[in-house]
Every structure is written in structure tokens, then in C-alpha cells.
Give the backbone structure.
Amino acid sequence: MIHENLSTFYGMPVEDYQPSAGAAQVSRTAYRLRIDWEKYEEGITFADLFDQYICDQHVTNTQALVIGDWGGTAEGNESDAIVEALVSARDKLPNLKALFIGDLIGEGAGISWIMQSDMSPIWSAFPALEEFGVRGGSGLQLGRPSHANLKKLVIETGGLSVRVVQEVCSAQLPELTHLELWLGDPSYGADATVDDLRPLLEGGLFPKLTYLGLRNTELADDIARALPGAGVIQQIDTLDLSLGTLTNEGAEALAANQELSRLKKLDIHHHFVGPEAVAKLNGLGIEIDASDEQTADEYDGEIYRYVYASE
Amino acid sequence: MNTTVKSTATSTPRSDAKAARRRPRDVIIGSQDSPRIAAFQRALHKAGHREAIVFDYVQYLNDGWTLDLPNEPALVRFEAPGRSFEDYKAILAVGHDEARRMGYEAIAPDAIERLQHDKGKLIAPAQYQLGFQLVLRRLAAQVTMRYCVSGDVQLLTDVGAIADVFDKRRCRDQLAKRSVPVPRALAFGKQLAGYDELRALMDAQHIPRVFIKLRFGSAASGIVAYQVSRQHELAYATVELAPDVDGVPSLYNTRRIRRYRDHRDIRPLIDRLCRKGVHVEAWYPKAGFAGRTCDLRIVTIHREPRHRVLRQSKTPFTNLHLLNQRSPVDAFIAKMSDEAWPRVLETCREVASEFQRTLHLGIDIAVHTNLRDHAVLEVNAFGDYLRGVTDDLDMTTHEAEIAVIDGLLDAGREVQS
């Protein structure tokens, strides 16, 4: 479960936008627009808040924008109206470099409760965009992302559909350096297999890629076993398999894979790997983050391992 | 090896004879072997006072409800009752008539005799709490009678306030009337019938996320965090349904938080919980800190907030784990917006004023995910036992309570505010 809202985004501190305070700090601050439940009950809508933001005299200097709870998000209100509002305000946001849609935490709406929508209008509306992040895989679509400047794409879900994985694999993102997919739990819609990830693992899809995150996934062991010979390893500096259900088996496969010793960093934090297997990973001679070891649950004789965020 | 040993555990009794002479005898009614009482005795010793005389609730019941107060001026303090199954049964038996009168599950005294210990099983929590309140009222009446005769005994805790805060529904409503920020309550009649009524009321009152708590529960016992949307429903619970020794599905407290997504699991759980008597309020979205959801336990002494700890969890239930180091609390406070923390302290003073005839309170406060707002989640009459926690004056809660009383006595004032 995610416990904290974004505190920084695109290298800037995140602050809730308050109409009374205005958006004067917009060149140094990533404002977050959100309608928490209390405001929602008072009848204040996201559209009201967004209009106020867009009419602020400083709005055109916006570089980074975070969209939080858009009102009734936990009750199932979808994000399509949000995407539409953003796109229709494109002329007021000519310098938008970074956008995050869905900064909600488990105390507001679980990651799988956030009803996302089709993000494809974003790509052409914001040509200056360098970073795009979205939380929530339910209803999420990317279309066929094509963007000349996007460097960082982060898709955080409790269950990512194979369709979105395919959309990512079809993307034209020549500047992409950071690709982060939270694949999630099959009970929450994660239906991709490691075979669906092969185009990514083969490498070359994104020529400038330096970071690959296949995070929050029950496929962690499968991915570890599929890595030998994967071209992407020759390309990247950092492989991030954190927040998933990596076990000793996966860790052993990683440790035996000498190709990984060319990486700068391997991140497996939040894992189910014992200390001995972690010690073997250290044999790769690269930076390893193996913090936050988890213990499996046992119930009625069954072993359960959970990814970091599914519900 | 260390040659010098810096002692913190032992201390020299204060040589101030005045304090020892002037402080009436402390009398504690609680459970003989409770670590709370041991801690309080240590604090008395450190302040140079005599050891408190301790009475046990169950012993009191067994002695025919007579309290043998010492024949000298006394300060009477109530502590939590013992947690053994035998202690539970003794108090449960007292609550039978009142539970039945109020329409809660009531177990007759002869059936209580036959109850077998079954770890974690929720047994008539309303009846137990009503029984405990009755015992407290009788004890308080005896102390008051003595006060009327000789004027030399004083209660440090108002039993009415204890009753108010142990009834979660009443406590929340009382605070709301005083404009203390509290989560919105789900409004219903005397009792909630079960799952179907809950769902209908959540829809009608627009509260899609709720905390269902035992109205007369304590700590983390019997809590369900439940949410519905158009697509899903989900319950996190500190209780689970399991067959008891006779194969009857029963509610058990569990330390391992359960997560249910299927209404076939959720419905019977909520139905059964409702029969025990529940209070339902909006799920207040709590701010996170260091990868956990958290809230604050603040202890007020004589209406002033003194001690604070951060409680943290990876689940929605923060009342399971507390961090007693100061640094995380201070770091969390630093994360809040500038005016937010003074307003939290103001809320604590307001809560303490509502229950002002009580020396100390443990107030649980959630800070909103927006880091500006906050709400009082719970008030605890016995919430002052925080091991290893000291205030700005480097005093434990018990030391601070003793010092406050000494200060009032030195000033020649009545102890009870």
C-alpha cells in the first residue's frame, strides 16, 4: 500500500494548490490539484479548482503539475474528464515538462480503485513534456505513445493489463531514458506474462534507455530467469525489480547472471529473498539495494507473497 | 568493561520531606500485577512519596463490593482492569443486566461460569464495558461517601468521563458538539442491523469509506476499515470469522490484518460485528510518514498536552505499533504545515476541557493527508502508559502526573480540577 503523497516531482517540491494563495511559485513548485473528500462533499469540483488554476496569471510558467484526487475518485469517478480538461487547457500550459495523474495513496483510494482512462490525447497536446507519470491501472490506456521529448515514463499500477504493456512496447519515444512499469498482482488485472515483456527485455525499443523498472510485480522471479542474453542489459545502468515478490529462486538466477555485473545498480528492495541469496547477489560487484525484506504469509497451509501495492 | 555505571533505573528518593508529608496516600484501583502500576510506583518512589496502596477490581468484587480505604487522606486513581480471562469473566458478569436492558448481546452469569478460554475470541464486549462502568460507579460512590464524611479523599479521575470515552459513539458526538474536529459519523438509530443497512446508509449519507469499530471496544479490537465504490468493495479487519470449539462461527481478534474483497466474506463479518454493537465513522485519510500510515497519541495532564508518540502501520490500523522515540514524532510534526501543529495542541486542550474532571487523557489524533487538518479518532481514559516516553521536562507521564498533583497541593488547591 502506498502511504505517502508525492513530496517532490520533477526535482521540485510538491505543494497543494490553494486558490487563495495563488500560483506565484509556479516556476519552483509542482502544484498538486486535488479535491479531497471534504471538499467533494461541499460540492467543490475538480473543474472549479482547475479553472482557478488555469486563470492564474502565472499559469503559463507551469513546468510540473500533479493531479491528485479529482473528487469521488475512491467511489469510481474516472479520469477521462481530467485528461480532457488538461488537453483543452494546452495553450495555457505551453511549458509543461512534467505531469503526474493520480497522486492518491491507500488512505484516499487504493491504487486499483483509481479509475484511469485513455491517456493518448496527452502525447500530442504537450510537446514539451519530459516526464509523465500515472497511478492506477484500472481503465488505463496509452494509445500508441509517440513523443519527441519524453524522457521518463512511469506507470504505477496494482495490476497492469497486457494491452498497456503492448502499448508501451509499440511506443515511439526516442528520448526515453527511464521506463518504469508497476506490473502488479494478477488478482487486480495483471495479465501479462514474461513473454509479453520480451520486446522490452530484448532492448533497442528505446535507444537512450538507462533505467528499466519492472516493479511491484509477481513476475519478478520469471523476469530474473528470462534475463540471461537480454539485450536491454547492455543498454541500461539500473535494473529495478523492487517492490515485487522476488524470492531466493529469482535472486539465485540474478546472481548467476554475470551480464548484470556491467550494471551500476540492481534494486530489489521489498523482496522475499533470504540473507544467503542476498550475499550471492553482492558477488555481482555492483550496488545492490536489498532493503526491506518481507516475510511471506501463511494461511490454511498456503504461502502468500504480496507485491507492495495491489489493492 | 564500563567502570562507571550511569544509573537511570534507580534513583534517590527526594529528600524533600514536605512533599512526603503533604501528599495524601496514593490509592490505585487496578490489577495487582499490572506493569502500569509498577511504573506508577516507581514514579512515586522517585518523587520521594510513599508506595501506593493497590486494590484489585476483581478482589473488590469478591470482597462483596467493599473498598477498604486507608484511614488517612488519600488520592484515588483508577487504572485499567486485569486482562486475564478470569478477570474478564468477573466483570462480564456484572454487566449482564445492563447489556440486556440496552439490547446488546448478554451472557447470563451461569453461562459465563461455563465459558472456556478461547484466545482472541470477542465475547460480549458491550456487556464487559457496561459491567466495568458499573463497577467504577460503585467505587466512585464509595469514595464520594467517604469524602462527604471526612473530606480527605479525592478522585483523580471522574468515572463519568471514563464512561464517556469508552463509549466511542458518545465520545465522538460530545466532541463534535464542542466543535472539536472528529470524523463524520454514520448516522443510524439505536443499533445497526448489519451489512445491508450499513451499505444503504453509506450510500444515502455519501460515506463510501468507513471505519467500523466496536462501540465499547478497546484498542484495536474488532475494527473493520471498509470501502465501497461502483466497482469494488474491500475490508481490512483486525477481526476474522472462525469456528469456535463448538463449530459456531465466531469473531476472533487477529494480529495479522485480514483483507477481504468478496462480499461473501465481508457480509457475515459485518453482520456479526454489528450484533456486538458498533460505531461507524468516515475513514479519515491519515497522512503517511516514512513509508507508513500514522497518527499521534498525545497525553494531556491537567488539560495540557505533554507527551506525544507517533503510531505507525503498513495497514490502515495505526493503533498496533507505536514508536516511542522522539525523533520520528518531531520529524512528522515538521512535515505538517506551520499552523497545523499548534492547532493540534489546541484541540488536545479542548478535548481535555470536555473531560476536565480527569487528570490525564490519551488522545489519538490523525493528521489529514493534506497535512493541514486533523481529527480526534479516539480518547483513552487509561492512555497514559507509554513506556520510555518523556516530555519536554524529561518526565515520564506518571512522573508528570505526580508533579502536577504535588504542585496543586503545594498551592493549597483542590486536586480535582
Notes: Residues 46-54 of chain A form the longest helix (9 residues). The CA atoms of residues 87 and 125 of chain A lie 6 Å apart.
